[in-house]
Amino acid sequence: MDITFYKYQGTGNDFVMIDDRDESFDLQNLDQVSRLCDRKFGIGADGLIAIRNHPDYDFEMIYFNADGSQSMCGNGARCAAAFSAFLGIVGEKTKFLAIDGPHEAVLVNDQVELLMGDVKGIDAKLGDFFVNTGSPHHIRFVEKVVEYPVFEEGRTVRFDAAYSPGGTNVNFVQPLANDEVFVRTYERGVEDETLSCGTGVTAAALVYGSQNGQNHVKISTPGGKLSVKFQSNPDGSFSKIWLIGPAVQVFSGKITI
Fold first, then answer.
1. CB within 8 A of 237, min separation 6: which ones?
2. Beta strand 169-177 pairing with 136-141
3. Which residues of the chain are under the pLDDT cut of 70?
4. Using the 8-state DSSP alphabet, how is residue 168 labeled?
């Protein structure tokens, strides 16, 4: 069987994209998903996204991490919106469904602005912070984040008993300016550092912004620049959370499975 695929990246977070509106791709075959994401035996990606029809939305995004597990993916959702525009499913605005519920997106040139789900609040955890932005994220502020042992420290926190059994993503954050931070992320499901993580930088922006009176935070990652705008509410929750950054098609092809 030949599968036509497209490769997209959002600040270095890369995804195999499949137009599955005919529902011919076997979503239950997680070994196949993992193999397609394998950088040596497959196409290579941090995750795989299938686009399917939905009666109540422009489309449904079905996202898999590279190991076949599922979660919300902010950069993946931005790429899904760009891919759906490429397919002619949507125009400059879209409403679509993801694993954590409905989302909206606005496309401006190669930039995609994604409306994230509301966040209940920020919790203290293991001496740091925890935020669920559709996926669980541990936030730790560090100095010299470029030199920080992200893989080793991230893996330790990811598998800590406090997060059993599902584990967590781990983000290491260094403030750069009043309204800017640098973020590196150890991603659950990839089990390594990724060049960027949309739900992770969103979580980092909420923590940093709430501490410093900012509602628009610029984020640098190893893969590029993003920004997050949000509204802080009196009860500690957050709403109107927008994740903004590029989503670019890299190449397309066919693979035999």
1. 118, 119, 120, 121
2. parallel
3. none
4. -
Q: What is the pLDDT of residue 114?
A: 98
Write out the E strands in the chain.
2-10, 13-19, 47-54, 57-65, 93-98, 101-108, 111-115, 123-125, 128-132, 136-141, 169-177, 180-187, 192-194, 216-221, 224-232, 238-246, 248-256
Nearest 10 degrees: CA dihedral of 187, 83, 245, 62? -30
Which helix (H) or strand (E) segment holds residue 215: the answer is none
* List 16, 18, 73, 79, catalytic entry: 73
> Does residue 186 sit in helix, strand or coil?
strand
Give DSSP secondary structure letters for 124-164: EETTEEEEESSSEEEEEE-SSGGGS-HHHHHHHHHT-GGGT
In the structure encoding, which two tokens stand for residue 122, read together?
A: 């920020």
- Tell me if residue 73 is catalytic: yes
- Contacting residues for 25 by C-beta, under 8 A, at least 6 apart: 3, 18, 50
**Amino acid, single-letter form, for residue 109:** N
> Distance between CA atoms of 179 and 230, rounded to whole angstroms?
13
> Is 37 tagged catalytic?
no
Q: Taking a C-beta distance cutoff of 8 angstroms, is the pair 85, 58 a contact? A: no
Kindly name the residue from 197, 204, 243, 247 that is annotated as catalytic. 197
